[in-house]
Design goal:
By secondary structure, this protein is of the alpha/beta class. The protein has a 5-stranded mixed beta sheet with strand order 1-2-5-3-4, sandwiched between helices. Strand 3, helix 2 and strand 4 form a beta-alpha-beta unit. The longest helix has 12 residues. It is globular, with a radius of gyration of 13 Å.
Length: about 110
């Protein structure tokens, strides 16, 4: 699994697979947020199935915030993501197919310094 650490409490990555869950546990991830729509690609794991496996591994918090495309991201998308993070145990990992949509949403979060 390739991931990027955005802040001490937030990581992004492309699609995660069942084999990546042990890596998430080792990283200390407490929350996983999926920005993919189910069925985007043939063979893509269904998020409900993947979330059940993530929770079975001890990561209690999983959220599905599907975003159809980068152009569909707006301030409401960012506000919902911010709310999810505020209500969740951290650190969190957000993912989509390549990490691009998740990176855009993260870039819209307010800076902690402001």
């Amino acid at each position: 699994m390739h991931y990027t650490q955005i802040s001490p409490d937030l990581y992004i990555s492309g699609q995660i697979e069942e084999d990546d869950i042990a890596d998430l546990v080792r990283l200390g991830i407490k929350t996983v947020i999926c920005h993919r729509l189910d069925g985007e690609d043939i063979g893509q794991p269904d998020f409900a199935d993947l979330a059940a496996k993530i929770r079975a591994a001890g990561i209690a918090h999983t959220y599905h915030q599907p975003i159809a495309s980068a152009s569909a991201i707006n301030s409401d998308t960012a506000l919902l993501f911010q709310h999810i993070l505020q209500e969740s145990e951290l650190p969190a990992l957000a993912f989509c197919r390549s990490g691009h949509r998740s990176a855009i949403v993260c870039s819209l979060l307010p800076d902690d310094d402001e």
